[in-house]
Amino acid sequence: MFKGRSICALAVAALATTAQCQQLSYEDSVTALAYGNVATDTSAEGTVWLNVTGFAVDKLPHIQEDLGIHTLDNLKTLNAIAGLAQDAATKGQWGDIVYLYSAFAMNGHSEYLNVSTVEMQESLLDAITNQDSGEIDHQLADLYASTSSSKFLVDAFHGLKSKPSTPSKRWLREVCSNAHLAVKNSCRSLLQNVRGNATWKTGSPRSICKYGCCISWSANATFQVENLTNAANYCINACGTSNVSCEVYGVKLQGTLVDQCLSNRATGCR
Length: 270
Ligand SMILES: *[C@@H]1O[C@H](CO)[C@@H](O)[C@H](O)[C@H]1NC(C)=O
Ligand SMILES: *[C@@H]1O[C@H](CO)[C@@H](O)[C@H](O)[C@H]1NC(C)=O
Ligand SMILES: *[C@@H]1O[C@H](CO)[C@@H](O)[C@H](O)[C@H]1NC(C)=O
Ligand SMILES: *[C@@H]1O[C@H](CO)[C@@H](O)[C@H](O)[C@H]1NC(C)=O
Ligand SMILES: *[C@@H]1O[C@H](CO)[C@@H](O)[C@H](O)[C@H]1NC(C)=O
Ligand SMILES: *[C@@H]1O[C@H](CO)[C@@H](O)[C@H](O)[C@H]1NC(C)=O
What we know:
This is WD-like domain-containing protein. This protein has about 270 residues and is of the alpha+beta class. It is about 35% helix and about 20% strand.
């Protein structure tokens, strides 16, 4: 997963084995990730959880929901990130957790991991922004900068600037958004696994991701994966040119009404 000399970080982080590897420290692993120093993991699919219940509410006011992802392509990376986040919690490295949770939510997709990418900056900004006022909480930004293991992250938290909110284009059934944009090519690839797929889904996690694109839905439903096709396809056609973020309201998944989202993260569109 990690390029070059950090190649063993995955094993260290996920399995805590150092047998064949020179050990990469926790700090080095976070730094390698934050610099985008990861190779694409073409390994495997599966479900991974990043559970944050019980993590300090006062330190992480915007990160309190357990997050599960069914990934079609990036199982090892997600396991490594989830492992690092558990370490971060025991160390009180709140800034690291904000970054790791963001990376996890975006399917650990290598093109989004570098802290300087538009996608990661947006996610870090969300974590320090008061949802009601839209203002940056500078105390939180300082807290996260002072509890980050990597200089890249410290700089990122210091440099975040609030954006003027951009109005979303609203239709009757769907909203195209400028936030949390996913690369359309990733979404098309994801759709290839969804279309004609009769596998049953129920319960959690309520997301399925491939590369830089995730489909998520707002409520528990029991349905077949292919039932996600129409809304996702609709979004790809209705929104954007090369990127898409879109929510469709009132999608019926074999009897259950949900809002379905297509974006760069498992946590929804906004
Ligand atoms: C991460 O972003 C920085 C700043 O844009 C860039 O200098 C660096 O090369 C990137 N890292 C990788 C591994 O591409
Ligand atoms: C994480 O939380 C989910 C539900 O919130 C639960 O189903 C899952 O078993 C938990 N996983 C771990 C490893 O605690
Ligand atoms: C169908 O969807 C499930 C996800 O629930 C996935 O595990 C499986 O690989 C998909 N099948 C194909 C052919 O993509
Ligand atoms: C999800 O909904 C199904 C019925 O559609 C139900 O059997 C199942 O227990 C629910 N799961 C959760 C985690 O609520
Ligand atoms: C969901 O998919 C199943 C086949 O997998 C199909 O029979 C059913 O009509 C679909 N339901 C909806 C509401 O699209
Ligand atoms: C799509 O997203 C990429 C990465 O954020 C960006 O470089 C590109 O300009 C975007 N394209 C459009 C048309 O918005």
